[in-house]
Design goal:
Elements (H helix, E strand, L loop, with lengths): L4 H11 L4 E5 L2 E4 H17 L7 E5 L4 H13 L2 E4 L6 H11 L3 E4 L5 H9 L4 E3 L4 H6 L33 E4 L9 E4 L1 H12 L10 E4 L6 H13 L3 E4 L5 H11 L3 E4 L1 H9 L13 E4 L6 H11 L2 E8 L4 E5 L6
Parallel strand pairs: 1-10, 3-4, 3-5, 5-6, 9-10, 11-12, 12-13
Antiparallel strand pairs: 1-2, 7-8, 13-14
Helix pairs in contact: 2-3, 4-5, 7-8, 9-10
Length: 332
């Protein structure tokens, strides 16, 4: 491997600085802008007392600010733990007590219950939307997934960008906790780089020409890997959909010419059953990717028949951050 994910993404940005990295609801962030804002956010984290090797939690929906916070944490050399922003207060408190992060980066429109849970766990929080200092340093605009402000903000003081061999963990992803309390799966920078390298090219065959739909929650393994990091590594564009609905997915495919749709079986079924489906334009779509739950063969065949594209069905583990296997017949 040629280096950590962060270093390889910087190389991708140098090859296509003006290419759209993130797209959402009429907004866009180029690869160069994403790098500048992540650098500035790394400095913002440093100002808040976060140091290389420490942990931060990120609880933001599928917004461009999630990507900036994630990359900013890595550029500082911190370990990042994405948390589902929809967690109930008691669920959030349990995870924060186990994680003991130096800082929680969250949306400023988080519920009062979530705020109370964070405070109860003794976690300092930083709201990333509607915060003047962040607008100045990281280009975060106000409200929801709103438009980023132009300008690079302050330049970071030499962020501690990790190597693939860096012993500091890159990610801590909490499992569903089906056998008890959620447990954090710890992933190294080397594991992260391998996961992206082995998934983005050989399986999804991603290229800079692709536009990938990000409707899966980015705080979970499949969404983070298949819908955000692997596409960015390939130089593709990622379309952020904050909350899934069949109509929102179909509109995003039409509006942005999405070529790849990572999802779960329930999503694909709901798209096919949507009243908007018969009139939908799916001409740009070349591939759907299913994971996180079983996808019946019958659904896969119906999807192929009605859309003209295939569903690539895989099985993976949070602990590996990549599929363990996929059905070769789906790739035909």
């Amino acid at each position: 491997m040629a280096g950590s994910f962060v270093r390889r993404l910087e190389a991708t940005a140098r090859r296509g600085p003006d290419k759209a990295a993130l797209l959402w609801n009429g907004g866009a962030l180029t690869y160069a802008e994403l790098q500048r804002r992540a650098d500035a956010f790394a400095e913002r984290l440093r100002e808040r007392g976060v140091r290389a090797g420490e942990r931060i939690a990120v609880a933001i929906p599928n917004r461009w600010t999630f990507a900036v916070a994630l990359l900013g944490g890595w550029k500082l050399g911190a370990t990042v733990a994405p948390l589902d922003p929809l967690l109930k207060g008691d669920e959030r408190a349990v995870i924060l007590a186990d994680l003991a992060p130096t800082l929680l980066v969250e949306s400023s429109d988080v519920s009062a219950t979530a705020h109370e849970a964070s405070a109860g766990a003794g976690t300092a929080a930083l709201g990333v939307e509607g915060t003047r200092s962040l607008q100045q340093t990281a280009g975060f605009g106000s409200g929801g997934g709103g438009e980023p402000q132009r300008g690079s903000g302050r330049q970071p003081r030499g962020p501690a960008i990790p190597d693939a061999a860096d012993p500091t963990p890159a990610l801590i992803l909490y499992t569903s906790g089906s056998t008890g309390r959620p447990k954090g799966a710890v992933l190294s920078h080397e594991a992260l780089a391998f996961a992206e390298e082995s998934w983005a090219g050989p399986v999804m065959a991603l290229t800079p020409a692709d536009v990938v739909l990000a409707t899966l929650p980015l705080a979970h393994s499949f969404g983070l890997n298949g819908a955000l990091l692997a596409p960015l590594l390939a130089g593709a564009s990622v379309v952020l959909v904050e909350r899934f609905s069949p109509e929102a997915a179909l509109e995003a495919i039409r509006r942005y010419g999405a070529t790849v749709f990572p999802g779960v079986a329930t999503m694909f079924h709901r798209v096919l059953e949507s009243p908007a489906f018969p009139a939908a334009d799916l001409g740009s779509l070349r591939l759907a990717v299913s994971g996180a739950a079983p996808c019946p063969w019958e659904l896969s065949e119906e999807w192929r028949r009605r859309t003209g594209t295939r569903i690539l069905r895989g099985y993976g583990m949070t602990e590996l951050f990549r599929p363990i296997s996929y059905l070769a017949a789906d790739a035909a």
